[in-house]
Design a protein that fits this description.
The chain is of the alpha+beta class. The protein has a single domain, classed as Protein Transport Mog1p, Chain A. It has five helices and ten strands; from the N terminus they run αααβββββαβββββα. Strands 1, 2, 3, 4, 5, 6, 7, 8, 9 and 10 form a ten-stranded antiparallel sheet that branches.
Length: about 230
């Protein structure tokens, strides 16, 4: 079961910038923060460490435990390996951002789970271009079946779903996966606002709660700069 979910964890990294994640450092608090200047920040304490060159401190925009349902915890089991990702999600290093942060949370039984990723591209033009390139990748991914590293064959389908517009531009997707008699559903919201691109992913058994996803996504987007 855990391998099944872990194999899906790479999906939001397509638009978060896979290369930036692999160059970041997993730290306490469930955050990966990567900067062009080589610094990292956890965002776990009351004071966040600046990134560089006037860029926003992305960790201050991440969801916290206070935003989560009762009993949820930070998930520190971060993985930057996309070797078992659906083939159409691989080789997306061209979308990498030099400044990136993410945080994940899980319910008491490790699912449902939510992942938030934010990437900073210095200008709104670069963010818009990266958003467009990433959405083009997602739109081509209809069949997202793949085989996980442990050999589990996972079948999956993906498509756009209706969701209110957020930021300068946004799009939402619904994904459905099945393996070994288990079905998982996933919602993904992708938002470009100013020089940032953010993804929020929500996953659960069967049909995930659209209301819960909407609540968490709205909280995440509200933390983005005005």
């Amino acid at each position: 079961m855990r391998a099944f979910v872990a194999g899906l964890a790479v999906v939001p990294l397509v638009l978060a910038g896979c290369a930036s994640v692999s160059s970041g450092t997993p730290v306490a608090g469930g955050v990966v923060s990567s900067t062009g200047g080589g610094g990292t920040s956890t965002g776990a304490g009351p004071t966040a460490v600046p990134t560089h060159g006037g860029a926003p401190e992305l960790t201050t925009q991440l969801l916290t435990l206070a935003d989560m349902p009762t009993g949820w915890t930070v998930d520190n089991s971060n993985s930057d390996d996309n070797s078992s990702a659906p083939s159409c999600f691989q080789h997306s290093d061209g979308l990498a951002a030099s400044i990136h942060a993410e945080r994940s949370f899980v319910a008491p039984d490790s699912i449902p789970a939510v992942d938030q990723s934010i990437s900073y591209y210095e200008t709104s033009g670069r963010a818009e271009s990266t958003y467009a390139d990433g959405v083009a990748i997602f739109d081509k991914c209809k069949d997202v079946s793949f085989t996980s590293d442990d050999g589990t064959k996972i079948t999956g389908r993906m498509g756009r779903t209706s969701f209110p517009k957020k930021g300068n531009r946004s799009v939402a997707y619904r994904l459905d996966f099945a393996a070994q008699g288990i079905t998982l559903g996933m919602y993904i919201l992708v938002v470009q606002k100013g020089a940032e691109v953010e993804t929020v992913l929500y996953i659960d058994f069967g049909v995930p709660s659209l209301d819960q996803f909407t609540t968490l996504a709205n909280k995440a987007v509200a933390k983005m700069p005005a």
